[in-house]
Design a protein that fits this description.
Number of domains: 2
Keywords: Membrane, Transmembrane, Transmembrane helix, Transport
Distance between the termini: 25 Å
Membrane topology: Multi-pass membrane protein
Low-confidence stretches: 200-210
InterPro entries: AmpG_permease/AT-1 (IPR004752), MFS (IPR011701), MFS_dom (IPR020846), MFS_trans_sf (IPR036259)
CATH architecture of the largest domain: Up-down Bundle
CATH topology of the largest domain: Growth Hormone, Chain: A
Subcellular location: Membrane
Radius of gyration: 21 Å
Shape: globular
Number of strands: 0
GO molecular function, one term: transmembrane transporter activity
Length: 424
């Protein structure tokens, strides 16, 4: 296996190309549809359905291993994503833009999920073990930077164009064309920068790696100890968060007359795309540090509480509607930091669940159930919010975090799991 493939040149942009489409499809689409007049019920149900490709990703990921190379897969998928975003931008001025754009976003979501599978596989094939460990942080950093670009810069651009043209349809049409061009440039760069070493690697490893049928790999996942409790925990842990994420943007943008905070699109882009992402990153890094120092057992409960308690801040905002934007910033910073800090514990537990033979496939299955736990409650979030109003909705969201918290106390895993050994 060659190690002189200049990973510094291609790893950053390969991971940027994974995070940006996800941010646009899952998060930015909510802001776009809200500004284009779509009601909360439709936003909740239809944008949550965009999670589906990540839910069922384990079902078609073996085809990416069997047919063609990982490099051809992720380049093709990135090009398809670029075209899809361009089509979304061109269809926004149409009267039936909502249905058409959702259909195209759905295609882009399948392409993005496939791109993730191929990129992850290429990363493991193209680098030596020690290189994989070294570049793990680089991958995470550039993935988060792509989220910052999507939730921050792209939203700010849309907000600026809204003010510049006084036409939200034109503003978001141009914004999506810009996103398509960014993805196209990244795709071209990845074409020239990523190494063409995969064929040789595959040939060398074909005979040494035993082939297991996907049915056996899938079945062994459901033979794990405590599997019923594990699946219930994975599905319910994000019950509150899945609804919160879908309705936060509408809450911030809606006028105070209907219970919202009355912010502009640019305000939301700055708050979440800068301060929010920075807080999320710091929380995630700190979460990894404390787990590596003391193990998951000591920090599981505190990290879950850190993730869910900031929801109280949104309850207070929705009832008191403070005039100063400082309180909104403070609440978002606390929520995003807690999310990054607490989610590290959840992901570390998923690594424990997947540990053993076929860990890559089992981790993919576990994250598929995680996406399902985000999709289904998110689909109902708009209906629940419209029925309860924002204040009572956030109270409901806070209560929805309790089942996952209770289930976490019955999980059995080594208390020192994730702790860095002294030898390391």
């Amino acid at each position: 296996m060659k190690t002189d493939n200049r990973p510094w040149y291609w790893i950053p942009f390969l991971n940027f190309a994974s995070g940006l489409p996800y941010a646009i499809i899952i998060s930015v689409s909510v802001i776009m549809y809200k500004n284009l007049g779509i009601n909360n019920e439709d936003i909740g149900i239809y944008t949550s359905l965009l999670y589906l490709p990540w839910v069922i990703k384990p079902l078609w990921s073996p085809f990416i291993d069997i047919y063609s190379t990982k490099r051809k897969w992720f380049l093709s998928m990135q090009l398809l994503i670029s075209i899809a975003f361009l089509i979304v931008g061109l269809t926004i001025p149409l009267s039936n833009f909502f249905i058409i754009s959702l259909a195209v976003f759905w295609v882009a979501a399948f392409a993005s999920a496939s791109n993730d599978v191929a990129s992850d596989g290429f990363y493991m094939l193209a680098l030596e073990k020690e290189q994989q460990s070294f570049f793990l942080g680089i991958r995470s950093t550039f993935y988060r930077l792509s989220m910052l670009t999507g939730n921050g810069l792209i939203v700010v651009i849309a907000g600026y164009l809204e003010q510049e043209y006084g036409d939200k349809q034109k503003a978001w049409s141009y914004t999506m064309v810009v996103v398509a061009l960014i993805m196209a440039v990244i795709t071209i760069y990845n074409y020239f920068s990523t190494p063409k070493t995969e064929t040789k690697i595959v040939e060398n490893e074909t005979e040494s790696v035993p082939h297991k049928s996907f049915g056996i790999v899938f079945a062994t996942f459901f033979q794990k100890k405590q599997i019923g409790l594990i699946l219930a925990f994975i599905l319910l842990f994000r019950l509150g968060e899945s609804q919160l994420l879908k309705m936060l943007t509408p809450f911030l943008i809606d006028p105070t007359s209907v219970g919202g905070m009355g912010l502009t699109t640019q305000d939301v882009g700055v708050i979440y795309g800068t301060f929010g992402v920075i807080s999320l990153t710091v929380g995630g890094i700190l979460g990894g540090i404390v787990i590596s120092k003391d193990g998951l057992g000591k920090w599981m409960l505190p990290m879950i509480l850190a993730m869910h308690l900031p929801i109280i801040g949104f309850i207070l905002l929705s009832y008191f509607h403070p005039g100063s934007v400082f309180y909104i910033y403070l609440t978002v910073i606390a929520e995003q930091f807690g999310y990054g800090f607490g989610f590290a514990a959840f992901m570390m537990y998923l690594i424990y669940v997947a540990d053993g033979e076929s860990k890559t496939s089992h981790y993919s299955i576990a994250t598929g159930f995680m996406a399902l736990g985000m999709m289904l409650p998110g689909m109902l979030s708009g209906f629940i919010q419209e029925y309860l109003g924002y204040g009572n909705f956030f109270i409901w969201v806070f209560l929805a975090t309790i089942p996952g918290l209770i289930l976490s106390r019955f999980l059995i895993f080594p208390s020192d799991f994730g702790k860095k050994s002294e030898q390391e």
